[in-house]
Amino acid sequence: MVKAISSETHRDKAKAAASKRAAFGEDIDLGIYVSSVGGQPSEVEPSKLPAATKKRMLQAGVTVDDRSQRAGTFIQMDNAPVHSSVGQEGVEVMAVSQALQKYDWLSDYWWKAVAVDTDKYTANVELQQHNGYFIRTLPGYKTIYPIQACLYLAKARLAQNVHNVIIAEEGSELHIITGCTTASDEEAGLHLGVSEFYIKRGAKVTFTMIHNWNPEVAVRPRTGVIIEQNGLFLSNYVLMKPVRSLQMYPTARCVGENAVARFNSILTAGPGTSLDVGSRVILDARGAKTEIISRAITTGGSIVARGYIEGNAPDVKGHLECRGLILAGEGTIHAIPELKGTLEGIDLSHEAAVGKIAEEEVEYLMARGLTRSEATATIVRGFLRVDIEGLPPLLDAELKHAIEASEKDLM
Amino acid sequence: MRDAALTVEQLTVEVEGREILHSVNLETRVGETQVLFGPNGSGKTTLLMTIMGFPKYKVTRGKIVFRGRDITALPLDERARLGIGMSFQRPPVVRGVRMRDMVAACLRGREPEESINQLAEKANLTDFLGREMNYGFSGGEIKRSELMQLLAQKPTLTLIDEPESGVDLVNIALIGELINSLLEKDCPIPERRCMGLIITHTGHILDYINARTGYVMCDGVIGCEGDPREILATIREKGYQECISCFLRRRTTGG
Predict the structure, then answer these.
(1) Which of A139, A288, B10, B149 is most deeply packed, by most CB within 10 A?
(2) Which domain does B192 fall in, by range?
């Protein structure tokens, strides 16, 4: 447990919200999960982890053997951070508990981008916190390689409650790849992850998150992002593997002029998977921009794909694109794009489409000599390909690889 | 005279329960290009789509023989791999699938990736290789893209639906060049292997390509056969109405 990090106010608010249902998604009974686990090593050398563990991590984009293309690494197993390392000057990577001890000022960032009383999950993270990561780039420093963070769930029926804080100081550039995964293909578990991002003036953060859970895990990430003047936040979320229930609605607030937030999400749901995933951007400063793109495929699971853009300042611009593909009859996709404007001179738009693969398109490709299954695979691959502007080539390639590696599971 | 490589015999075709083609006969010899004229709705596209093998077009009678093989019941993709290719008049938009991937798929690994760039250059589509298939393409871009894919696919029999529709004068010359390249018009006649069956409503494409035979299709049957330029001259002078009247006269008199 992380000690002495919370003011009484936070705890009081959390206690008051301990039973507060989330606005969206299935209500999860927190009582069925165990809240802590002991006996874990305090520090491990990542390359010495068991091969099976490394394989699960790699499927979530976390590479522990060759870390030459990583600017830093953080690994937390269950409730315990087991490794933090940095490979580049101007970058800090450590357990959030350690950061709270090191920096008094960190309390100024604690529960500022996400409200502690958002729902019972945020409240639970406050009341039973199991660490998390702190990643920061110092002013003007730019990471070349991404920093990787892995949140690993090993113990059965564990509720993993993490609180992460990410700060990109003025003019810095930070690339993060987060892989969340489980040891087992079948054990139940719960992951509650609060992530607070602070992107200062002129800073740029790309955040690539690959989830590799199992069909029994429930996941409730709670993410808030605050972007200052000329700052950029680019989020890429990939879920190609089964999960039982996942609900998240990360919210970015563009509070400085010309701040930019972009969200790309790729979601797939097989039978038994229930997803309620969206991205929300509040454009509160002149010239702020956003683009939210999601691609959802169901092969039998249920997906609610949300999006929300709110324009509250002059000259803001936002576009929301939500496309869903139903590859099996039993699946459902419910696209809910929302736009809210509160003054004139704003430019918000959306497009949403849900359907099956058009037979006409399959036949068009077949007329070029592709078999039906090749044609279908080509269309699905095309559907999942989102061109991501601003992502370093290495990360872009890794992201594409993660998607391609799972494409065949959809067929 | 060279052997017939495509024979369409007494082909009767239904679309969604309605008979569109009535006992159509047609023969194409190796290396030959033919043109199919006809008013809108006469069944020209239906004939091409049926030869290509689209499932919506149901053959109720007759047969299609390609290079000695009865392909009437052969699936669409197998016909494509056997050497039949089609340039669509209005191909669907395929979001997410890039032109480069599509051309690569047409090549089926027979040629190096570099040839994609060469083909794109030839079709003046270099800037389009990263674009999604047919998304926001102009009329001319669609035609050039269709022909570029066919140049990669290298069919023996190319079916081309209205190559000039929606195309401006600048584009039509290039489209003519691409068709000529597909049909090996730069080869001496005896060495040509490729065949073409081209639908044209206006006949403009004949200013750029040569064809041996012209057919006029009316109301689901081939009404007449002859020199394509002569047919075109008649159509230009008298319009399709004359063809239809002529056809009706002959049908009434059994001629």
Answers:
(1) A288
(2) 4-253
* Contact pairs from chain A to chain B, CB under 8 Å: 67
> Structurally, how many domains does chain A consist of?
2
Is A2 among the domain residues?
no
Nearest to A368 among B95, B96, B105 (CB): B105
ipTM of the complex as predicted: 0.95
Please tell me which residue of chain A has the smallest CA distance to B98: A382
Beta-bridge mates of residue A93: A135
Q: What is the mean pLDDT of chain A?
A: 91
Q: Do B97 and A382 touch (CB under 8 A)?
A: yes
Helical ranges in chain B per DSSP H: 44-52, 76-82, 99-107, 114-122, 139-153, 169-182, 228-253
Residues A286 and A385 in one domain: no
Query: What is the reported pLDDT for B189?
Result: 81
Residue A364 Cα, gap to closest chain B Cα (Å):
7
In A287-346, the residues whose Cβ lies within 8 Å of chain B are 323
Q: Which residues of B203-219 are buried (b: 16+ CB within 10 A; e: fewer)?
A: bbbbebbebbbbbbbbb
So what's the pLDDT on residue B241?
81
Domain range for A398 is 358-411
Answer yes or no: is pLDDT of B1 > 60: no
Residues of chain A with pLDDT under 70: 1-6, 37-41
User: What is the Cα–Cα distance from A74 to A69, expressed in whole angstroms?
Assistant: 14
pTM for the model: 0.86
CATH classification at residue B75: 3.40.50.300
